[in-house]
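Lab meeting, item 3. Inverse folding demo.
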């Protein structure tokens, strides 16, 4: 299972036949394993990874990382407040963190004002939110093992006479 999962992580467009030849399993076995991974919720989704610098719509979006300190709820801990936060359509990612803050949220908006209004009117007003700290993401270099920048530098060494 893990071998097939690793192959799909690298390239979700591999066919059952390709995976079969790479793993020395029959196509029927591979198809059954993939179906089980999907049914068990191990594989949640197949998606295209798009370079935001080359996608006109994504390029104009504003991304922000927000560090949130919250008051955990009795018997629910951080889960109840996290549930309320990740349901907002602006939220792209949400993590429970250790250290100086409790939750890290990555949100997306059409402009700076939209992001600021989301933080001040939606996020900061939630019961249990004690403080927020917002940083704007200026450029993605690498995310989830995907490098977004093209290396166009001339790497030739200079020659001295």
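The presenter then showed the designed sequence:
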């Amino acid at each position: 299972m893990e071998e097939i999962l690793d192959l799909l992580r690298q390239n979700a467009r591999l066919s059952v036949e390709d995976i079969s030849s790479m793993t020395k399993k029959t196509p029927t076995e591979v198809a059954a394993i993939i179906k089980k991974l999907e049914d068990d919720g191990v594989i949640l989704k197949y998606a295209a990874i798009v370079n935001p610098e080359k996608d006109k719509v994504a390029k104009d979006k504003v991304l922000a990382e927000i560090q949130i300190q919250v008051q955990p709820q009795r018997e629910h801990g951080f889960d109840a407040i996290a549930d309320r936060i990740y349901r907002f359509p602006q939220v792209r990612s949400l993590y429970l963190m250790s250290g100086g803050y409790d939750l890290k949220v990555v949100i997306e908006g059409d402009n700076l004002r939209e992001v600021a209004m989301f933080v001040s009117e939606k996020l900061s007003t939630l019961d249990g939110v004690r403080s927020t700290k917002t940083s704007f993401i200026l450029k993605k270099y690498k995310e989830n093992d995907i490098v977004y920048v093209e290396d166009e530098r001339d790497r030739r060494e200079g020659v001295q006479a």
